[in-house]
Amino acid sequence: MKKAIQISMMIALFVATSCSSSKKVAEVKKVDPLIGTWAIVIKGTPQGDVPVKMILKKDENKQYQATLSSVFGDLPVAGLKIEANKMSGNFLVEGLDFSLGGTFKDTVFEGSVFGMGESFVANGKKE
Length: 127
Hints:
- The structure is a single chain.
- The protein is α+β, with helices and mostly antiparallel strands.
- The chain has 2 domains: 1-29; 36-126, Lipocalin, CATH 2.40.128.
- 21% of the residues lie in helices and 57% in strands.
- The protein is built from 1 helix and 9 strands.
- The chain has one helix spanning 2-28, and strands at residues 36-45, 48-58, 64-70, 73-76, 78-83, 86-93, 96-105, 108-115, 118-126.
- It has a 9-stranded antiparallel β-sheet, with no helix packed on it.
- The chain is elongated.
């Protein structure tokens, strides 16, 4: 009888420690849903619809950084701000100043690019 109680207690202890350690692992693996690559199309530009890959990451200070990769090369986004799933920032294309703004909704980005006195729709989704 004592042996059965000891075995039961060992099993209970094993289950309890297994559950608590897996919970800690799940907490560590929580990833920022905005980090990653976003496939965006800027519509109606003078060059037609321009596909862009927006790569979002965080630096060592936990600040967001973004790069737009397109036929114009890799364009860093300056003055990037992301708060409450709303984004704003600026980038240069061939010496011309543009701003990008938009909202993240789950895996969808809805935004606009402003520049040259014009506004262009810039929508996409996370890859």
